[in-house]
Amino acid sequence: MRSVSGASSVDDDRSWQPGDPIVEPQGAYQLEDGRWVLSRECS
């Protein structure tokens, strides 16, 4: 799995570390170019 280019996360300063909570995706979306993205709703 890899990030979609041009996407940024809320906390770009550090990557996930053991002990951090696991955030499950809420949906899978297919992009126009055929790639799939797992994502959560934005508030």
Q: By helix and strand content, what is the structural category?
A: mainly beta
Sequence stretches where pLDDT stays below 50 over 5 or more residues? none
Q: What is the gyration radius calculated from CA atoms?
A: 12 Å
The number of strands is 2
Describe the global form: extended
Write the layout of secondary structure elements.
Blueprint lengths: L26 E4 L5 E4 L4
Antiparallel strand pairs: 1-2
Main traits of this protein?
43 residues, mainly beta, two-stranded antiparallel ribbon, extended
Describe this structure as you would to a colleague.
The protein is an all-beta fold and 43 residues long. Helix content is 0%, strand content 19%. It has strands at residues 27-30, 36-39. It has a two-stranded antiparallel sheet with strand order 1-2. A hairpin with a 5-residue loop joins strand 1 (27-30) and strand 2 (36-39). It is extended, with a radius of gyration of 12 Å. The mean pLDDT is 78.
Quick overview:
β1 and β2 form a beta hairpin. With 43 residues, the protein is mostly beta strands.
